[in-house]
Write a structure and sequence with these properties.
three-stranded antiparallel β-sheet, extended, 54% strand, 4 helices, mainly beta, 16-stranded antiparallel β-sheet, 27 strands
Length: 554
């Protein structure tokens, strides 16, 4: 529990002492969290290991606040609220409350350390939902088989020190996006302007806060996983691999209603998202010509798709947060078809509907992807795409890392490389084109690469302050940037001082080292931007860090 007191006193000048006010604010927050559980574990006949756990939890939060103030105090030394003018005073107050309650359990069973079962059950209730939608049931189960413990494995798979196969399925609930009282029809008091009702009286206005949905409930996240763990060659090599599929069901999404509704409809549990991918790592440790070496490589990837979004299939040019049937944060753009480089090409392209009337030699051409004889964002029929295509999404693909460690006598070295195999990037905002504003300096990579009479084979459209620049540099395959990269994230080199040297100072160990962070990278992002920087380009200059130090143990 904690209490917050906040008071403020303001006066404008000694010459106008009546222009002052006092505001008093007090808030109290009480947060409670209770958890209770019981456990049981026993092994029967030296083969059957059983563990049981069950419990309950309760968490709630109460906030209460009050505010009052007056203005025009005649005395500047005493600031009691009752000394202010009654002609200009205000009060306010309110509070919030929420609670969540859970019942949970787990059963674990193992047979001869070869077959393992783990099952969980959760029953969660939240005050954010209507009473008949408040509770959700979320089970989970995982299975494992240690193949290396089987007699046949010891005969035919002796190269493995340990080999385990895994499978699991589990559900969890999510209430993010649900406000505290969304299932109640709330009334907002006052818009700051009272209404006169009768002589000498003013009353606060009141209005409905919005439409309410009583049917909203938990979003369910269901995850399936298959995996394998292995060590082999006398534990010199270890390997793990996991493949997962995750389904988000009953996601909160906006639902389109007829425009005659006259209000903003509430979000509904109608969205579905599918995510799938893998994670793997392989490690090795051993000696090479007296050098102790260890290495570990890590690789992961994930894709997603909006399976259901209430039937909505709208999109805009550029970045789209949601579109049904595509990944989250997908770019849509035109297919660049080269520059107009002579009068004949210009005359032919100007005949196509949708092409700007002020287009000229050196400007961009885009393909008529759907073959309807014009350049357009949308097709003629409802739900039909125009000439834009999916150009990728913001999610990084094929994230990888490599750790290398070596030790020889008193020397040691550690290297960490990290990177992304695929990432789509489009510049947006002020740096999406040269001269987005007439006074803004274009990015460096456009210099000597834009078309003019002296550079007829340049790859980028001509420079212009006119509206044609928005046509030339709109989202398209021309503007697509491959932001894949490889980075030397960390390098450390150390040397342990000889014991005979440090013994005189009563040290047991002393090591000097050099360490560097973000020392080098390889990428194709234009303009010198860091490959991990934001798309708008407004970020702090990238830093490389170098340090020298000594570790001393007495």
């Amino acid at each position: 529990m904690y209490r917050w007191d906040d008071s403020s006193i303001v006066y404008y000048s000694i010459a106008n002492p009546d222009q002052n006010w006092v505001d008093r604010y007090n808030a109290t927050t009480l947060h409670r969290n209770y958890v209770g559980y019981a456990e049981f574990s026993r092994t029967f006949a030296d083969r059957h290991a059983v563990e049981l756990m069950g419990g309950v939890s309760h968490e709630d939060d109460d906030v209460d606040w009050f505010r009052a103030g007056r203005a025009n105090f005649s005395n500047q030394d005493v600031w009691g609220l009752n000394l202010g003018s009654t002609g200009n005073m205000w009060t306010g107050g309110g509070g919030t409350q929420w609670a969540i309650r859970s019942v949970f359990s787990r059963l674990s069973y193992g047979f001869s350390n070869k077959y393992m079962l783990d099952a969980t059950l959760r029953y969660d209730g939240s005050s954010r939902f209507a009473p008949d939608k408040r509770w959700g049931f979320f089970p989970g189960v995982s299975l494992a088989w240690r193949v290396s413990e089987e007699p046949f494995a010891r005969r035919h798979l002796a190269v493995f020190d340990n080999l385990k196969l895994r499978a699991s399925y589990g559900e969890t609930g999510n209430q993010e996006g649900i406000n505290l009282y969304d299932y109640l029809q709330l009334i907002t008091i006052g818009r700051g302007y009272p209404y006169p009702f009768g002589p000498g009286g003013q009353d606060q206005s009141a209005f409905l806060s919005g439409m309410v949905s009583k049917g909203r409930t938990w979003e369910t996240i269901a995850t399936s996983n298959l995996g394998v763990d292995a060590t082999l060659l006398s534990s010199k090599v270890d390997f793990t691999f996991d493949y997962f599929i995750k389904h988000n069901r009953d996601m909160l999404i906006p639902v389109t209603y007829p425009s005659l509704l006259g209000a903003v409809p509430p979000y509904s549990n109608a969205g579905r998202l599918k995510t799938w991918g893998f994670e793997t790592s392989v490690g090795w440790k051993g000696q090479v010509r007296g050098i102790q070496v260890s290495a570990r490589a890590i690789l992961s990837d994930a894709k997603n798709k909006v399976v259901g979004y209430g039937g909505q299939d709208t999109y805009v040019l550029g970045l789209n947060y949601i579109r049904q049937g595509y990944p989250v944060n997908t770019y849509f753009g035109y297919v660049f078809d080269g520059l107009i480089r002579n009068q004949a090409e210009l005359d032919a392209y100007k005949l196509i509907p949708g092409v700007p009337s002020d287009i000229g030699i050196g400007d961009a051409r885009y393909k008529d992807v759907n073959g309807d004889g014009k350049i357009s964002l949308y097709g003629d029929a409802p739900g039909q795409d125009g000439d834009v295509v999916s150009l990728g999404n913001t999610a990084p693909r094929y994230t990888y890392g490599l750790n290398l460690d070596g030790r020889w006598r008193s020397f040691d070295v550690s290297i960490f490389l990290q990177g992304v195999g695929k990432r789509t990037l489009f510049r947006d905002g002020d740096y999406r084109m040269p001269w987005s504003d007439w006074w803004r300096q274009p990015p460096l990579f456009y210099y000597d690469k834009t078309w003019n009479e002296d550079r007829p084979n340049a790859p980028y459209p001509r420079l212009s302050h006119g509206d044609i620049r928005f046509w030339n540099y709109q989202p398209s395959t021309l503007q697509e940037i491959n932001a894949a990269y490889l980075r030397l994230k960390n390098l450390q080199v150390g040397f342990a001082l000889p014991e005979r040297l440090i013994a005189r100072a009563r040290m047991t160990r002393a090591r000097v080292y050099f360490s560097g962070f973000d020392l080098w990278e390889k990428h194709n992002v234009k303009g010198g931007w860091d490959p991990e920087s934001a798309s708008h380009g407004f970020n702090y200059p990238f830093q490389r860090l170098y340090s020298f130090g000594m570790d001393i143990t007495f």
